[in-house]
Design goal:
Strand 11 and strand 12 form a beta hairpin. The mean pLDDT is 91. The strands form 5 sheets. The chain has a 6-stranded mixed β-sheet, with no helix packed on it. Helices cover 28% and strands 25% of the residues.
């Protein structure tokens, strides 16, 4: 049976750098390119027939020419691989698109209308369409119906799975999938990978992005690699990201100083994430009960940890161990504050409101002991 080897990736967002990274932002921006070059290397090593890129290769069409040049140069490393691209909402196929300015013999860009490209030597047809603006209306059915023959039918689409067409990001409905006649639909736009899903014989999946862009993207990042034949999909997810975004909760109960907390956090990171723990980006949430006379400096802890990892942001959610019932009876400003806050807490109408009041209470108690920053977590 005829089979083709594919590599499915999407949402590489080359040129992106989170401003929250500070001095590391520029380095991280080029790492999006380096990881894409790793994808190219994987395609070469595995003799991939089709590299399917499901949109948002660039974070924007106006990224530096240096980055654009490196991407198109990388295509030359895999001359025998057919590179199929559909533009996404971040790099739409408009007058500024690099894909309308530069070309390669092995690069095939699907246009703004439903399109099909046939590769007779591979008995394969590839379908799809590109964004030409930051938004695109979905369609109930793909306008090109596959022929009833032995060709493998692949589709590359950037959009979001929806139950209806109410979306500005190319809604892809169950009806669209069912009637597509595809053997596999390579999806982009959603940054979290999905399993290989199946609907009425049509397999489809999101590969997710290849590098997390923030602390709302915590899962493994990578690509799908494997073989597809008529009616059969055999793909494996391959993690490839250089770094992961990780939220790490640390219990600092009964600890007495910022250096002690920082040291224990680093030991915990190494124990949990291995020898390469320092490569990752961490949001560290410190919890637990701290004695009233202990002063914790979030800035100091963050500075000490940042010397040992690529990036660290510390959030101090510790609570002061104190007898609130006793303090609220005091005839002092502190006593009045505690009494009023406990009253608000008792009448809180939701869990989120209760948390806000607890945070304010804890912040206020710290203010009675030492100076705190207005924006302290």
């Amino acid at each position: 049976m005829n089979a083709v080897k594919i590599l499915h990736c999407a949402d590489t967002h080359i040129g992106f750098a989170g401003t929250f990274l500070g001095e590391n932002a520029e380095k991280r921006r080029f790492e999006t390119l380096l990881t894409f070059e790793k994808i190219i290397d994987i395609a070469k090593i595995n003799n991939v027939d089709f590299l399917l890129i499901a949109g948002d290769l660039f974070h924007a069409n106006n990224v530096e020419k240096e980055l654009i040049d490196r991407v198109f140069e990388s295509f030359d490393k895999i001359p025998d691989t057919k590179i199929i691209y559909v533009a996404g909402n971040h790099d739409p196929l408009n007058s500024e698109s690099p894909f309308l300015k530069f070309s390669r013999p092995n690069l095939f860009v699907l246009g703004e209308e439903d399109e099909c490209i046939e590769f007779a030597e591979k008995s394969t047809r590839v379908y799809g369409r590109s964004f030409i603006d930051a938004s695109m209306q979905g369609e109930a059915r793909f306008k090109i119906v596959p022929q009833n023959d032995d060709f493998i039918n692949l589709m590359v689409m950037h959009g979001e799975l929806k139950s209806d067409l109410n979306s500005q990001y190319n809604a892809i409905t169950p009806e669209f999938v069912r009637t597509s006649g595809m053997d596999y639909i390579a999806l982009g736009h959603v940054h979290k990978k999905s399993d290989i899903l199946k609907l009425d014989g049509v397999s489809f999946a999101y590969s997710g992005c290849h590098e997390g862009l923030g602390f709302d993207e915590l899962d493994e990042k990578g690509v799908y690699l494997g073989e597809i034949s008529k009616g059969n999909v055999n793909l494996e997810f391959l993690p490839i990201s250089k770094r992961q975004h990780i939220i790490y909760e640390f219990d600092a109960s009964n600890m007495t100083s910022s250096p002690e907390i920082a040291e224990k956090i680093l030991l915990g990171l190494k124990d949990k994430y291995g020898e390469d723990y320092y490569e990752n980006l961490y949001k560290i949430v410190i919890i637990g009960g701290i004695d009233e006379d202990v002063v914790i400096s979030k800035t100091e802890i963050e500075s000490r940890i940042s010397n040992s990892v690529f990036f660290a942001k510390v959030i101090d959610n510790t609570e002061i161990k104190i007898d609130l019932e006793a303090i609220k009876s005091e005839t002092s400003l502190k006593g009045i504050f505690v009494k009023n806050m406990l009253s608000l807490l008792e009448n809180a109408e939701s869990e989120s409101e209760s948390k806000k009041i607890k945070d304010a209470l804890n912040l206020g108690l710290r203010a009675f002991k030492t100076e705190v920053n207005f924006d302290e977590n």
